[in-house]
Design brief:
Strand content: 15-25%
Helix content: 25-40%
Number of domains: 2
Oligomer: single chain
Number of helices: 10
Largest sheet: 10 strands, mixed
Low-confidence stretches: 1-7, 202-206, 267-277
Radius of gyration: 21 Å
Shape: elongated
Distance between the termini: 14 Å
Strand order of the largest sheet: 3-2-1-4-5-10-9-6-7-8
CATH class of the largest domain: Alpha Beta
Number of strands: 10
Length: 296
């Protein structure tokens, strides 16, 4: 891995906040607010509702339903505009297929980051749980910050990131390191870089423990020399199950944020998103802090 790849500072110009007005979605508000302020970004709030009328709806009921939906959309728009102190979000209340609209918005508005909450089990939040959450951060063309079901009820230190953990397997998805370094610089945070080595298997010619030294040297290459001026990176190599070790180190370091690179799914449709052992999915759903995923 070339050190040059980690030197590119990221830009966050457009942030998307999907919401269904549930407590789950609200958990992401402080983080979206803080990131927008820090990076001087534009905030876009999106609510997608199912169609007001459908083939089962009596035509005589359409006018009343459409009037009610219009009034509700107006109220929701006003509520979202008042949700973020000192920030005027661009509010979109859309009707139709959630995925189609989400993909269209990401492309049209050139979204750099999605900030979403996944604690609830209704409306849009239902789609952002479980395999669907993993599908979003595997398929979205931008980074995704997920505030999972076990994240702190109230974000510590006003949604600021003071302790950031970047976990890598040295694959191409490790481009996520640019986000870890940029956020650490922006928040003047402590940065830990972690690589987990799988335990020995029968027939392995090299013992896992022998890879620790080379792994540390590779981790050091991720951090540009100038980063030493504003932070003191910590390098950790662990041996064992990857997801469990990432969560363990995050807890030990009292991480406010975990940063992961994720691989684009492959194989038959839905294969990767339905694997119960998907590492990123495990981390997102079990972490006690938000998780930023960046597709490689």
């Amino acid at each position: 891995m070339k050190a040059l790849e980690s030197q590119t500072r990221i830009e966050i110009k457009n942030v998307l906040f999907p919401t269904d007005f549930s407590p789950a979605a609200d958990a992401a508000i402080p983080y979206a607010t803080e990131i927008v302020r820090r990076f001087g970004a534009k905030l876009h709030a999106l609510h997608v509702r199912p169609p007001v009328v459908n083939p089962m709806t009596a035509p005589t009921a359409w006018p009343a339903l459409e009037r009610a939906a219009k009034a509700e959309a107006h109220a929701q728009t006003q509520a979202l505009r008042e949700t973020f102190p000192g920030i005027k979000p661009d509010v979109m209340i859309e009707e139709g297929d959630f995925w189609r609209i989400l993909e269209s918005v990401i492309e049209k508005l050139e979204i750099d980051l999605i900030v979403l909450g996944t604690r609830g089990r209704s409306g849009a939040a239902k789609f952002l749980l479980g395999s669907r959450a993993e599908e979003i951060f595997r398929e979205a063309r931008c980074a995704v910050l997920t505030i999972g079901p076990h994240s702190h009820t109230k974000p510590p230190r006003g949604a600021e990131f003071r302790e950031i953990l970047f976990a890598t397997d040295f694959s191409p998805a490790s481009c996520a390191v640019a986000y870890a370094i940029s956020l650490a610089q922006e928040f003047q945070a402590r940065l830990t870089l972690l690589h987990v080595i799988a335990e020995d298997k029968a027939g392995d010619l090299v013992h896992a423990g022998e890879l620790a030294g080379p792994a540390v040297r590779l981790l050091r290459k991720f951090v540009p020399a100038e980063a030493e001026l504003w932070c003191k990176p910590h390098f950790v190599v662990e041996l064992g199950p990857i997801a469990e070790k990432v969560l363990e180190v995050a807890q030990e370091r009292k991480a406010d944020l975990i940063v992961l690179g994720v691989h684009h799914r492959s194989g038959f449709p839905g294969a990767a998103t339905h694997l119960p052992i998907a590492i990123a999915h495990k981390v997102v759903t079990r972490a006690e802090c938000p998780v930023l995923t960046v597709r490689g």
